[in-house]
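Consider the following assembly input.
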Amino acid sequence: MSERLKIGFLPLVDAALPILAQEHGFAAEQGLDLEFVRDLSWATVLDRLLYGHSDAAHMLAPLTIATTLGIGRPARDLSVPFVLGLNGNAITVSNDLARKIQPEGGLGNAADVGKRLAETVAQMGRKPVFGVVHRHSSHNYMLRYWLAACGVQPERDVDIVTVAPPFAADALETGEIDGICVGEPWNSVAVERGVGRIVLTTAQIWRRGVEKVLAVPTAKLEERRGSFERLIIAMRKAGEHFVDPANWDVNAAILSRPHYVGADKELILRAISDRLRLVKGGEIVHFPDFMFQFREAANFPWVSQAGWLYAQMVRWDAPHFDPDAAKKAMGVFRPDVYRAALAGRDSPLPGASSKVEGGIGSPLGVGAQQGTLVMSPDKFFDGKTFDPERLEDYLASLA
Amino acid sequence: MRIAIVDESAARAAIIQEGLGGMDDCETLVITERRGLIAAVAAFDPDIVLMDLGNPSRDVLEEYFAVSKALARPIAMFVDESDEESIAASVDAGVSAYVVNGFAKQRIKPLLDLAVRRFNAFSRLETDLAEARGQLAERANVDKAKRLLMTSRGLTEPEAYKELRSQAMRSSKRIAEVAEALLMADQLLGGTR
């Protein structure tokens, strides 16, 4: 008799792991039957999670922290025992803006494109408008991080608005926005419609940026701990399947179904194979690790990732730095649950639960609790590092 | 009290609006278009916004409220923290409510309850409609199956119906199911018409 878990999600390629865990029988192997609840706004995915319509959800990493801290709504404790993936987003801008900030085409260098954007903004005579998918999203924080590091003050020089991912192309077409930071397949949809060009991927801003996570109400995680640990095992297997080129075609076909992502299979195939068409009719460009869903303990919920997100929240949003809130924010990520689920299995487990983010310049063997783990460069484009032990110093350095 | 009803389903919005119209001192505005949503909400300056959970613009609306909050305009998500039951009921019904101004709870509660009842009533209507459509489709199938028997075997209409009915009784199926099976078989065999 299998146990039912309901998973809420938004139609995005990075909802792949739980979906594939179900479709390829990895969940069934663990005695689980996953049922999916598809929604069109993060607010609704979150409401369903908090009011018991779903047991776990595909969610923006920062939104789990904001929810736990009670930013924007009454606080409710969420836990993140598994990271669904790193990066996988891109910045798509209107054709007009693309000509100015990336005239030679192709994927630019984050610093160069940013420099040209700063020059363009100074001459535009109006504030350009950038879309993000949610205030508490890595999209918002990555975009702001990049803009600020290139001398464009997000609060002063541009307007940042929220746009639902499926309407990214519409908003570019009508001129509602000049650019957007969004996940796939929505950049590619805009490109295919000829309404914008991809100029950067978020992996160029932060090589290993935390993206979507599996969010579970903390009380439910404790109550059904065994089931969620088995779900973690199933999703690791799905991740291994997801990154194997032999499976890309079949996985793209599954994800494209209307009750999952509901988008063109070819566009999904591109995203999962790290390929992007940057401009309508252009060549397809291969950008390694555009999405990063499995290798190098990509699914491990590093406490320092939560710390980085909290730091950005303090930097750009309402709350002032508060050591207790910082501790609570970092406590949302639950490496203890991830470890317990995978102990004695063939997934590598890092020795530490926190690291200096952006600190690896060349492949580095790191201490492991089990297996061997070599981490690739995880740099921020401006070379800064984030030490979760020195959060206040980090914030001061950005001021 | 000014209430904005944001719903891409015009039919559902109308049902909610009609319900709220019966309350004292309520001015309502229905917004069904995604484009220009924020401008429309801002222009109406509502005290309460009702929005269906399936609406893709919820994050956009919440962002607008978050920004307004920065301009010192108090927002309570749903009713308030203490009224978990109402919130759960509204999530179950599929409606979210944003209280823009600090209204007294006793004024908001009946309004939210009414919205929840209207949403639930609409869901029931939809279910009924789907059932009715199903029944119509079934009746059409029975008619087609009768005509098929009439032309292929030269039966009269009452005879064709009798044939379907007795087959249904023999196989303990519904007449509509026998009709559907017959039509499917006919299609597989290339059709007789």
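The domain at 131-188 of chain B is CATH 1.10.10.10 (Arc Repressor Mutant, subunit A). Ask yourself how this observation constrains the way the partners meet.
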